[in-house]
Amino acid sequence: MQCVFLAAGRGTRLRPLTDTTPKPLLEINKKPILAHSFEQLPDEIDQVILVVGWLGDKIRSYFGDNFLGREIVYVEHKEMLGTGYALSLCRDVLSDKFIVMMGDNLYCRRDIERCLAHDLCLSVKEVENPQDFAVVEVDAGGALKAVCEKPHNSASNLVNTALYVLDKRFFDYPLVRIASGEYGLPQTIVAMASDCRVGVERAEAWTEINTAEDLKGAEQHL
Protein backbone atom coordinates (compact mmCIF):
# COMPACT_ATOMS: atom_id res chain seq x y z
CA MET A 1 0.00 0.00 0.00
CA GLN A 2 1.08 3.59 -0.60
CA CYS A 3 1.13 6.66 1.62
CA VAL A 4 1.20 10.24 0.35
CA PHE A 5 2.72 12.95 2.52
CA LEU A 6 1.92 16.51 1.42
CA ALA A 7 5.12 18.39 2.27
CA ALA A 8 5.36 21.31 -0.14
CA GLY A 9 4.21 24.30 1.93
CA ARG A 10 6.35 27.26 2.97
CA GLY A 11 5.36 27.26 6.65
CA THR A 12 5.07 31.05 6.75
CA ARG A 13 3.81 31.19 10.34
CA LEU A 14 7.04 29.53 11.47
CA ARG A 15 9.37 32.06 9.91
CA PRO A 16 12.29 32.65 10.29
CA LEU A 17 12.76 28.94 11.08
CA THR A 18 11.31 27.94 7.71
CA ASP A 19 13.34 30.45 5.70
CA THR A 20 16.17 27.91 5.49
CA THR A 21 14.52 24.65 6.65
CA PRO A 22 11.36 23.14 5.14
CA LYS A 23 8.65 22.80 7.78
CA PRO A 24 8.55 18.96 7.71
CA LEU A 25 12.26 18.95 8.65
CA LEU A 26 11.86 21.14 11.73
CA GLU A 27 12.94 19.05 14.68
CA ILE A 28 10.96 17.85 17.67
CA ASN A 29 13.09 16.10 20.25
CA LYS A 30 16.02 16.15 17.80
CA LYS A 31 14.09 14.43 14.99
CA PRO A 32 12.24 15.97 12.00
CA ILE A 33 8.46 16.13 12.17
CA LEU A 34 8.13 13.99 9.06
CA ALA A 35 10.51 11.34 10.41
CA HIS A 36 8.21 10.92 13.43
CA SER A 37 5.28 10.31 11.06
CA PHE A 38 7.28 7.76 9.05
CA GLU A 39 7.81 5.77 12.24
CA GLN A 40 4.04 5.57 12.82
CA LEU A 41 3.20 4.05 9.44
CA PRO A 42 1.64 0.56 9.56
CA ASP A 43 3.70 -2.32 8.21
CA GLU A 44 1.57 -2.69 5.05
CA ILE A 45 2.81 0.67 3.77
CA ASP A 46 5.72 -0.20 1.50
CA GLN A 47 5.94 2.94 -0.64
CA VAL A 48 5.79 6.62 0.33
CA ILE A 49 5.10 9.46 -2.08
CA LEU A 50 6.48 12.79 -0.91
CA VAL A 51 4.95 15.86 -2.53
CA VAL A 52 7.63 18.53 -2.16
CA GLY A 53 7.97 22.17 -3.09
CA TRP A 54 9.62 24.78 -0.87
CA LEU A 55 13.21 23.66 -0.16
CA GLY A 56 12.28 20.24 -1.47
CA ASP A 57 15.93 19.43 -2.20
CA LYS A 58 16.58 19.34 1.54
CA ILE A 59 13.74 16.85 2.05
CA ARG A 60 15.16 14.70 -0.75
CA SER A 61 18.60 14.86 0.83
CA TYR A 62 17.33 13.74 4.24
CA PHE A 63 15.04 10.88 3.17
CA GLY A 64 16.73 9.76 -0.05
CA ASP A 65 15.13 7.02 -2.15
CA ASN A 66 14.49 4.68 0.77
CA PHE A 67 13.76 5.46 4.40
CA LEU A 68 13.04 2.97 7.19
CA GLY A 69 12.76 0.23 4.57
CA ARG A 70 10.18 2.04 2.42
CA GLU A 71 10.69 3.12 -1.16
CA ILE A 72 10.19 6.86 -1.71
CA VAL A 73 8.84 8.54 -4.83
CA TYR A 74 8.98 12.33 -5.14
CA VAL A 75 6.38 14.54 -6.81
CA GLU A 76 7.07 18.24 -7.40
CA HIS A 77 4.41 20.78 -6.40
CA LYS A 78 5.59 24.01 -8.00
CA GLU A 79 2.32 25.96 -7.98
CA MET A 80 0.84 26.39 -4.52
CA LEU A 81 -2.77 25.68 -5.50
CA GLY A 82 -3.92 23.79 -2.42
CA THR A 83 -4.00 20.29 -1.00
CA GLY A 84 -6.49 19.02 -3.56
CA TYR A 85 -4.24 20.11 -6.39
CA ALA A 86 -1.19 18.64 -4.64
CA LEU A 87 -2.83 15.22 -4.46
CA SER A 88 -3.98 15.46 -8.08
CA LEU A 89 -0.29 15.57 -9.10
CA CYS A 90 0.12 12.05 -7.70
CA ARG A 91 -2.51 10.44 -9.90
CA ASP A 92 -0.08 8.66 -12.21
CA VAL A 93 2.02 7.15 -9.41
CA LEU A 94 -0.84 5.86 -7.27
CA SER A 95 -2.24 2.38 -7.74
CA ASP A 96 -5.47 1.93 -5.78
CA LYS A 97 -6.15 2.37 -2.04
CA PHE A 98 -3.78 4.81 -0.34
CA ILE A 99 -3.34 7.05 2.71
CA VAL A 100 -2.84 10.81 2.62
CA MET A 101 -1.34 12.78 5.51
CA MET A 102 0.22 16.18 6.06
CA GLY A 103 4.00 16.18 6.31
CA ASP A 104 3.92 18.76 9.10
CA ASN A 105 1.43 17.06 11.45
CA LEU A 106 2.01 14.32 14.01
CA TYR A 107 -0.12 11.17 13.86
CA CYS A 108 -0.15 7.82 15.64
CA ARG A 109 -0.18 4.29 14.26
CA ARG A 110 -3.37 3.19 16.04
CA ASP A 111 -5.36 5.98 14.41
CA ILE A 112 -3.96 5.16 10.97
CA GLU A 113 -4.79 1.48 11.39
CA ARG A 114 -8.38 2.22 12.41
CA CYS A 115 -8.84 4.42 9.37
CA LEU A 116 -7.45 1.68 7.13
CA ALA A 117 -10.27 -0.60 8.25
CA HIS A 118 -12.53 1.55 6.02
CA ASP A 119 -12.56 1.61 2.23
CA LEU A 120 -12.65 5.41 2.44
CA CYS A 121 -12.11 7.42 5.60
CA LEU A 122 -11.40 10.82 7.15
CA SER A 123 -9.93 11.24 10.63
CA VAL A 124 -11.30 13.78 13.12
CA LYS A 125 -10.39 15.02 16.59
CA GLU A 126 -12.61 16.54 19.24
CA VAL A 127 -11.36 20.00 20.25
CA GLU A 128 -12.50 22.88 22.46
CA ASN A 129 -11.97 25.58 19.81
CA PRO A 130 -13.44 24.21 16.57
CA GLN A 131 -13.72 27.73 15.11
CA ASP A 132 -9.95 27.64 14.54
CA PHE A 133 -10.07 24.51 12.38
CA ALA A 134 -11.93 22.81 9.55
CA VAL A 135 -15.05 21.45 11.24
CA VAL A 136 -16.41 18.09 10.12
CA GLU A 137 -20.13 17.25 10.12
CA VAL A 138 -21.12 13.59 10.37
CA ASP A 139 -24.44 12.09 9.30
CA ALA A 140 -26.67 9.82 11.40
CA GLY A 141 -24.83 6.77 10.10
CA GLY A 142 -21.42 8.05 11.15
CA ALA A 143 -20.26 8.96 7.66
CA LEU A 144 -18.81 12.21 6.33
CA LYS A 145 -21.45 14.84 5.56
CA ALA A 146 -19.68 18.21 5.27
CA VAL A 147 -16.51 20.18 6.02
CA CYS A 148 -16.64 23.85 6.99
CA GLU A 149 -13.49 25.96 7.29
CA LYS A 150 -13.26 27.92 10.57
CA PRO A 151 -16.99 28.54 11.12
CA HIS A 152 -18.06 31.35 13.46
CA ASN A 153 -20.65 29.09 15.04
CA SER A 154 -20.54 25.33 14.89
CA ALA A 155 -22.77 22.58 16.22
CA SER A 156 -19.83 20.17 15.94
CA ASN A 157 -16.51 20.14 17.79
CA LEU A 158 -15.01 17.51 15.50
CA VAL A 159 -12.22 18.88 13.31
CA ASN A 160 -10.34 17.51 10.35
CA THR A 161 -6.91 16.04 11.17
CA ALA A 162 -6.01 15.80 7.46
CA LEU A 163 -5.55 12.03 7.57
CA TYR A 164 -7.43 10.36 4.73
CA VAL A 165 -7.88 6.89 3.30
CA LEU A 166 -8.80 7.14 -0.37
CA ASP A 167 -8.63 5.25 -3.64
CA LYS A 168 -8.39 6.28 -7.27
CA ARG A 169 -12.10 7.09 -7.45
CA PHE A 170 -11.04 10.43 -5.96
CA PHE A 171 -9.63 11.46 -9.32
CA ASP A 172 -13.02 11.02 -10.99
CA TYR A 173 -14.27 14.17 -9.21
CA PRO A 174 -13.49 17.78 -10.19
CA LEU A 175 -11.35 19.55 -7.61
CA VAL A 176 -13.39 21.92 -5.43
CA ARG A 177 -12.17 25.50 -5.30
CA ILE A 178 -12.33 27.11 -1.85
CA ALA A 179 -12.51 30.75 -0.72
CA SER A 180 -8.72 31.24 -0.88
CA GLY A 181 -8.77 30.34 -4.57
CA GLU A 182 -6.95 27.07 -3.90
CA TYR A 183 -8.33 23.59 -4.49
CA GLY A 184 -9.33 21.89 -1.25
CA LEU A 185 -8.73 18.21 -0.60
CA PRO A 186 -11.36 17.69 2.14
CA GLN A 187 -13.93 19.67 0.16
CA THR A 188 -13.35 17.44 -2.87
CA ILE A 189 -13.73 14.37 -0.64
CA VAL A 190 -17.11 15.76 0.51
CA ALA A 191 -18.19 15.87 -3.14
CA MET A 192 -17.05 12.26 -3.46
CA ALA A 193 -19.03 11.36 -0.31
CA SER A 194 -22.28 12.17 -2.12
CA ASP A 195 -21.74 8.96 -4.11
CA CYS A 196 -19.45 6.86 -1.89
CA ARG A 197 -19.61 6.36 1.86
CA VAL A 198 -16.63 7.99 3.59
CA GLY A 199 -16.22 6.73 7.14
CA VAL A 200 -15.16 9.01 9.99
CA GLU A 201 -12.78 7.85 12.75
CA ARG A 202 -11.94 9.78 15.92
CA ALA A 203 -8.22 10.20 16.50
CA GLU A 204 -6.60 9.42 19.83
CA ALA A 205 -3.49 11.48 19.14
CA TRP A 206 -2.93 14.26 16.62
CA THR A 207 -0.85 17.40 16.74
CA GLU A 208 -1.05 20.19 14.18
CA ILE A 209 2.09 22.31 14.02
CA ASN A 210 1.76 25.87 12.77
CA THR A 211 3.65 28.05 15.28
CA ALA A 212 6.71 27.98 17.52
CA GLU A 213 4.36 27.34 20.46
CA ASP A 214 3.01 24.28 18.62
CA LEU A 215 6.55 22.94 18.33
CA LYS A 216 7.03 23.22 22.07
CA GLY A 217 3.67 21.59 22.69
CA ALA A 218 4.59 18.75 20.33
CA GLU A 219 7.72 18.03 22.39
CA GLN A 220 5.54 17.54 25.46
CA HIS A 221 3.04 15.47 23.47
CA LEU A 222 5.73 13.05 22.29
Automatic annotation (TrEMBL):
PANTHER family: N-ACETYLMURAMATE ALPHA-1-PHOSPHATE URIDYLYLTRANSFERASE, NUCLEOTIDYL TRANSFERASE. Keywords: Nucleotidyltransferase, Transferase. This is Nucleotidyl transferase domain-containing protein. Signal peptide: none annotated. It comes from Candidatus Portnoybacteria bacterium CG11_big_fil_rev_8_21_14_0_20_44_10. GO terms for molecular function: nucleotidyltransferase activity. Residues 4-216 form the Nucleotidyl transferase domain. CDD domains: NTP_transferase. SUPFAM superfamilies: Nucleotide-diphospho-sugar transferases. Pfam families: NTP_transferase. InterPro entries: GlmU-like (IPR050065), NTP_transferase_dom (IPR005835), Nucleotide-diphossugar_trans (IPR029044).
